């Protein structure tokens, strides 16, 4: 899959990022097809149910310059991402950590590779079968780290709830409230990053 990242003289920066964002969005939709199948659903189930033709995609860029006292600073505090997937491109400088078994584990960047995190809304719609990734960013004293995450979410007006086909009565009841994606985003923006606290607020 080709990614239009080279900025030729006749191509504006906004066009480069628009092309990149579009291509990453297609990659995400392909991944969601595989996730649908892994849940025992039809291949295009998530794509259709989440109205991915009108998917809300948010592209950001993070710069973490060297810090003289990295033990006293944090790049980003622990949090999980809204949306279904976050696809991350980064330079060769480590700094991403994920929480596994209650411990923080370094995720070393691989050359020419994306890192994919599962988000809160994949956890909600799968009723906990997929978990959103609790992660943080740490800084170092020697090198600048850059990362470009793109969050892939449903359309803003899509109501996200546990998929009925994944529920089977009292033994596997819905564990999350139904909520429009845009309302969850408002909840996300109105609170400081604090672990998975936003997701906890929509748990039943």
From TrEMBL:
It comes from the Eukaryota. Keywords: Iron, Metal-binding, Oxidoreductase. The keyword ATP-binding does not apply. Residues 54-154 form the Fe2OG dioxygenase domain. One of its GO terms (molecular function) is oxidoreductase activity. Belongs to the iron/ascorbate-dependent oxidoreductase family. This is Fe2OG dioxygenase domain-containing protein. It comes from Eucalyptus grandis. InterPro entries: IPNS-like_FE2OG_OXY, IPNS-like_sf, Oxoglu/Fe-dep_dioxygenase_dom, Plant_2OG-oxidoreductases.
């Amino acid at each position: 899959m080709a990614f239009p990242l080279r900025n030729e003289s006749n191509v504006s920066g906004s066009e480069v990022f628009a092309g990149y964002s579009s291509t990453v969005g297609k990659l995400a939709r392909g991944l969601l097809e595989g996730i649908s199948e892994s849940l025992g659903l039809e291949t295009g189930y998530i794509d259709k149910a989440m109205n991915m033709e009108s998917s809300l995609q948010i592209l950001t860029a993070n710069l973490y310059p060297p810090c003289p006292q990295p033990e006293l600073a944090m790049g980003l505090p622990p949090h999980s991402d809204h949306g279904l997937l976050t696809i991350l491109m980064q330079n060769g400088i480590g700094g991403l950590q994920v929480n596994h078994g209650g411990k923080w584990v370094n995720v070393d960047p691989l050359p020419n590779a994306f890192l994919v995190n599962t988000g809160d809304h994949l956890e909600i719609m799968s009723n906990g079968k997929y978990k959103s990734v609790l992660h943080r960013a740490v800084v170092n004293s020697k090198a600048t780290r850059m990362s470009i995450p793109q969050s892939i979410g449903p359309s803003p007006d899509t109501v996200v709830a546990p998929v009925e086909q994944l529920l089977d009565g009292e033994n596997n009841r819905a564990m999350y409230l139904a909520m429009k994606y845009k309302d969850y985003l408002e909840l996300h923006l109105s609170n400081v990053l604090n672990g998975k606290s936003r997701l906890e607020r929509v748990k039943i």
